[in-house]
Each structure stands twice: as structure tokens, then as C-alpha cells.
Specification:
It is a single chain. The chain has about 200 residues and is of the alpha/beta class. It contains six helices and seven strands. Strands 3-2-1-4-5-6-7 form a seven-stranded mixed sheet, with helices on one face. The protein binds glycinamide ribonucleotide.
Length: about 200
């Protein structure tokens, strides 16, 4: 059984979808650890209700970015984590954690990358930009994390149609529904070997 850590910043609906998929057995893994850079995130509360170990790691807990990176690497190692999922995590991963989990850090992004990715492209900003650009379709991307925002190898994508009536909020809701399915499906494909991650 693969051990997952989920990194979150906010409400954690993708984290909840992953936990549910593990509980239902459609994802043969267990969420062993949830880390948030935001002490007040709803996701931390939800994880604690499920008796999952949680950890707040941010510039508030570690003012030095290098020590923060080391702390993240250590807590992941102490839980024997196999795969790290970034589920609405809005911070860059430090170089030590990146190197320790190279090819095993996976992010979900609410657009069809490489479109509408990069710094500042998160949450409603993405859907606003999609509508402003007059796109007919957007979607969800699951990709490996490297040192840059939204640049790592793409593992899976699903398109979502943009309707003329769509607002950023309605589009976010449509895309989120797809995120909840695609994330768990992709992780399961990695676990059962139908998606092969690059060797460390
Ligand atoms: C999700 O839409 C996720 O794709 C997005 O943040 C939201 C988190 O929602 N991530 C990014 O924009 C990353 N650049 P959640 O906390 O309910 O899972």
C-alpha cells in the first residue's frame, strides 16, 4: 500500500477526494500525512477529524527557507511517504525536498497546461484569465513538480468546455468536479503501473 502525503493551503476539497478514494478502495493507497503552509486551513481540520497526522510548515514556523525545506523533507521521511500530492498548495517546494522526492511530487492545476500556468496562476485567477482570453475549452492537468511553477512533465489532462454563460466561479466549479475524479484516477494509474514515473 503506497503512503501518500497531501500538501494543502486552503479548503482541501482535492485532499478530501483523495482520502475518500482511499477509503472506498478505488485508490490503493493511504493518506498518512497532511501538510499545510496555512495553520488555519480547513483542510488541516478535516484531516485531523480523519485522524490523519497533520503538520503546519511555513515561514511562521521556520523563518529560514533552508530550515523549512529540511523540516519538510524530514517529516515526509519520518512518515515513509512514497508519493507527495500538491492539492491546492500555493508555495514552491524547496530544493532538498524536490531532490529527495524527485519524480514523486505531483501537482494538480486547474487549466490545460502549458496554458494559464506559472506564478500567480491559481484559483480564480486561472478561470478569469481563461474567460478573458475567450477560450472555448479549459481543463485539468496533473503534472510532476520541478523547480518552476507548473512546468513539470504532464501526466494526465482532461478538457472542460467553456460555455458563453460561464463566469469564473461557474467554470471553477465545473473544473473542480473533474479535478476530484482525475487526481485519484491518475495516482491509481501510477500505483498500478499504467503511468510510469521517471526513475529517481
Ligand atoms: C484547485 O482548483 C487546484 O487545482 C488549485 O487550487 C484549488 C484548490 O482547491 N491549484 C492551483 O491553482 C495550483 N496552481 P482545494 O483546496 O479545494 O483542493
Amino acid at each position: 500500500m503506497k503512503k501518500l502525503a497531501v500538501l494543502v493551503s486552503g479548503r482541501g476539497s482535492n485532499m478530501t477526494a483523495i482520502i475518500n478514494a482511499c477509503e472506498q478502495g478505488t485508490l490503493s493507497a493511504s493518506v498518512e500525512l497532511v501538510i499545510s503552509n496555512n495553520e488555519d486551513s480547513l483542510a488541516l481540520e478535516l484531516a485531523q477529524e480523519k485522524n490523519i497526522d497533520t503538520c503546519h510548515l511555513s515561514s511562521c514556523t521556520h523563518a529560514d527557507a533552508n530550515l523549512l525545506d529540511i523540516a519538510m523533507q524530514q517529516v515526509l521521511a519520518s512518515h515513509n511517504i512514497d508519493i507527495v500530492l500538491l492539492a491546492g498548495f500555493m508555495k514552491k517546494i524547496g530544493p532538498k525536498t524536490l531532490s529527495a522526492y524527485k519524480g514523486r511530487l505531483i501537482n494538480i492545476h486547474p487549466s490545460l497546461l502549458p496554458k494559464f500556468g506559472g506564478q500567480g496562476m491559481f484559483g480564480l485567477n486561472v478561470h478569469n484569465a481563461v474567460i478573458d482570453a475567450g477560450e472555448k475549452e479549459t481543463g485539468v492537468t496533473i503534472h510532476l513538480v520541478d523547480g518552476e511553477y507548473d512546468k513539470g512533465a504532464i501526466l494526465a489532462q482532461t478538457a472542460v468546455a467553456v460555455g458563453v454563460e460561464d463566469t469564473p466561479e461557474s467554470l471553477a466549479a465545473k473544473v473542480l468536479k473533474v479535478e476530484h475524479v482525475l487526481f485519484a484516477e491518475t495516482i491509481q494509474k501510477i500505483i498500478d503501473g499504467s503511468i510510469i514515473l521517471p526513475a529517481n
